[in-house]
């Protein structure tokens, strides 16, 4: 501790020491909360990384399952179309083509159109009894059917297209029933496969949701730790402002004490200077000599009573000398 520290306000110094101790504790608390927030953020990021990996696998499995379900839906559509065609053929065999204009699926319309094309083409190629007029009509009908076929093709999946021999309705019905059974079995197999895939995907969904919940917990813990760190930092900032004010006050006291000591030392130094070291003092002595005054070097100035005593002693010595000289002349 320096001399200037000794003159500072002790109560202010004690208060500063207590506040600096509290300031240190607040910094430690803030840093601890900040470290906790970083730790929770790191844990959250690690869990989110695991969640992303599982989500990536889920997306792949869902895409595979989607293809299986599309195949399942296609087989169902094919089965339903074949079964509808079977019903139409049964009705057709009983009542001709009376129900031809009723609403039909495009699969059935395409099957009928293809069947008519094959039947007309076969007759044109094999029936030599056709007249030119009849053949021209059949060719024109064939062109219309080909146009209709091209119109229906984009709306019917390739796997759902069926061919029907309208010349052999009973045989076609048996063939269609077999195809409908195959389509139904393919539909069931695809559905079972999709369900099995969903069971494994559902487990991964559960794992993903657990990781999401864990990541959310870490995230909320991080936010709480950050809020605590911010709250402590706010207290620390206020306290630091007060500490700086006290430090400024103590610094002012120190500067004032230093100035007082400096001025005192300068005063003492000047009082100990000899005339040859002090120009002002030398000039003052010279003026005093020129004006006939007396000068005392060193010590203190004699009092007026001492000066009077010295003057009387000199006078007595002078008179005694005169008497002695007189006695010698006689």
Can you walk through the features of this model?
With 330 residues, this protein is mainly alpha-helical. It has a domain at 22-229. It has seven helices and no strands. Residues 97-103 and 317-330 have low confidence and may be disordered.
Annotation keywords:
mainly alpha; rod-shaped; 330 residues; 7 helices; 0% strand
**Structural class label:** mainly alpha
**Fraction of residues in H or I helices:** over 70%
Please state the CA-atom Rg, rounded to the nearest Å.
62 Å
Largest sheet features? none
Shape: rod-shaped
Mean pLDDT: 76
**Low-pLDDT residue spans:** 97-103, 317-330
Treating each run of at least 4 consecutive H or I residues as one helix, how many helices? Answer: 7
Terminal-residue CA separation:
84 Å
Strand fraction band? under 5%
Got a strand count? 0
Strand/helix succession: HHHHHHH
Question: What's the helix and strand layout?
Answer:
Elements lengths: L2 H5 L2 H86 L10 H21 L5 H21 L16 H103 L7 H12 L13 H26 L1
Quick rundown:
The protein is mostly helical and 330 residues long.
């Amino acid at each position: 501790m320096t001399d200037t520290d000794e003159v500072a306000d002790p109560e202010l110094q004690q208060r500063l020491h207590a506040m600096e101790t509290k300031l240190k504790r607040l910094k430690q608390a803030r840093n601890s909360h900040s470290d906790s927030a970083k730790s929770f953020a790191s844990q959250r990021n690690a869990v989110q990384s695991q969640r992303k990996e599982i989500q990536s696998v889920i997306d792949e499995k869902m895409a595979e399952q989607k293809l299986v379900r599309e195949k399942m839906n296609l087989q169902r559509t094919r089965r339903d179309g074949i079964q509808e065609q079977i019903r139409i053929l049964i009705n057709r065999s009983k009542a001709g083509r009376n129900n031809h204009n009723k609403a039909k699926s495009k699969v059935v319309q395409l099957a009928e159109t293809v069947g008519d094309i094959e039947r007309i083409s076969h007759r044109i190629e094999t029936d030599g009894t056709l007249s030119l007029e009849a053949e021209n009509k059949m060719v024109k009908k064939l062109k219309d059917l080909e146009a209709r076929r091209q119109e229906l093709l984009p709306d019917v999946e390739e796997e759902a297209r069926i061919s029907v021999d309208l010349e052999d309705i009973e045989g076609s019905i048996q063939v269609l029933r077999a195809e409908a059974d195959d389509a139904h079995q393919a539909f069931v197999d695809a559905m079972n496969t999709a369900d099995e895939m969903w069971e494994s995907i559902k487990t991964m969904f559960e794992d993903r949701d657990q990781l999401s919940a864990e990541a959310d917990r870490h995230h909320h813990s991080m936010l709480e730790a950050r809020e605590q760190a911010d709250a402590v930092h706010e207290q620390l900032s206020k306290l630091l402002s007060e500490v700086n004010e006290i430090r400024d006050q103590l610094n002012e006291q120190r500067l004032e004490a230093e100035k007082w000591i400096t001025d005192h030392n300068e005063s003492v130094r000047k009082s100990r200077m000899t005339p040859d070291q002090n120009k002002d003092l030398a000039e003052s002595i010279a003026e005093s000599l020129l004006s006939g005054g007396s000068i005392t070097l060193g010590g203190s100035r004699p009092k007026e009573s001492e000066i009077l005593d010295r003057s009387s002693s000199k006078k007595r010595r002078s008179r005694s000398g005169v008497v002695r000289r007189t006695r010698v002349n006689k």
